[in-house]
Amino acid sequence: MIDLGFNSAKLVIYNVKDDDSFDVYQQEGVKVRLGEGLDKKDLLEKKPMLRAIDTLKIFREIIQLNPIKSVLPIATSAVREAGNRNDFVSSVFKETGFNFKVLSEREEALYSYVGAIKSLHIPDTLFFDIGGGSLEIVHAERFKIKKVISLPLGSLRLTNQFDGKKGRLTSKNLKNLHRHVWDLLPSKKDLGLGKDTKLVGVGGALRALARYEQRLSGYPLDKIHNYKISHKSLDSTVDKLSKMKSDDISKISVIGSSRAETIVAGSCVINTLMEKYGFSNLHISNHGLREGALSIFLEDPKMYDDGNITAEQIRKIIGLGTQQKTSPEKQDLLNNLYSMQLISKRERNILDYAEKNISEKSSYSNPQSVFYSIMDEDLSLDHTDHLVLGLSLVHARHSKTSDWLFSRYKTILSEQDKVSMKKISVLLILRKILDRTKSKAELKLHGSRIVEFVVTPSRSTQTFLLKDALRKFEAMFDVKVILSTRPYPGSSHSVILEL
């Protein structure tokens, strides 16, 4: 994927798997400032165009060094708005061989929405993507698109408009910028936001803000995806940054020189958006435009070329109705545990996620490798549940390692999280034994504290391991366990075994 934006050009090489899932293999980014001067004459200027073409030539050489099957070049607001866009696109093709798809406002917004929500699975959202030149907004209810808006509120564009060439936005200019953004944003009523709507955002400025906020607060987990930032915290961060010159901001390692000039304007847009619509928290996705565009291309190359993506296709790509299903036996076991109030709804969800998505991680020999591999994934779980999931799989292998890891993240974990970790780990061990021996199990509750595990064993069932796992279950859940076996599913004849 090549993403040519208002401020930067990015090359991301993805490794696409047989099931069309993908992960990043290599990525490069260059600040080309293609949109510089665009607002004066509605034309791309010569120097920015040359910078962009030179960067694309470098990208071409990187691509030639790798076994790339498909190259998808996309351009957004700077090229889209330029009166000389056709000349520029032709020049790029002549100089580099890249045939750019210039995204419409709707395409850019929806592609970005798909990329973000596919990885978060939040049904009712006000989604935004803040780039260098524009702000895309998508309102969705139950994953159905209700409204798509694109506004000229990109961070570089607003910096050029309000900075005044003094190295930072003055207090007066910042107030003018706030008023400008407020006036351009549609009203909450016009958007039709409901009480369950959550705010989800993507964009380089937002990610930099989140990293800075994490550093200021001493957040122990180095992860941006599905991080939540409060309006109060964001407001405080914006206040700090607005009093600093761009040279000083560039020295903040988590922001860097590439974002130093534009982050104040970008953060002001985000802060104003939260203020106007009354959101107290903001969910951040690490996925957006590029991931959405690639997902759409993999689903249907013709749909990608035409740009005519429907609401039903969006729902399909996000994964609704097509996710890997937990087997009925596993689902019944989880349902029984939940109905018996042995696990909470939250614990059930974490277990369900473990069953569906990351069983292969348990084959890793090093418990820490299991943990870091899981934490490196961008899951739809929030950070606390994500940690509990990773720690549970480690605890099933090596309790001392899980206790050490737990202590590293204790500022964002609770004692109840530790209990959940231990409960889930016991159930994962039990589930693993049943899976590997191809045995089936169902639960029966006798009174309030006696649980009968009725197992239909296969020839390879490891009875000793099963009994050991059930003894751990007894201790963890504070119940009396009865183990009985029957020769085949549905048989009324069973034999009770001693633990």
TrEMBL record:
Domain Ppx/GppA phosphatase N-terminal: 13-294
One GO term of the biological process aspect: regulation of transcription by RNA polymerase II
Superkingdom as given in the UniProt entry: Archaea
Pfam families: Ppx-GppA (PF02541)
PANTHER family per the UniProt record, alphabetical: EXOPOLYPHOSPHATASE, RETROGRADE REGULATION PROTEIN 2
Name of the featured protein: Putative Exopolyphosphatase
Organism: Candidatus Nitrosotalea okcheonensis
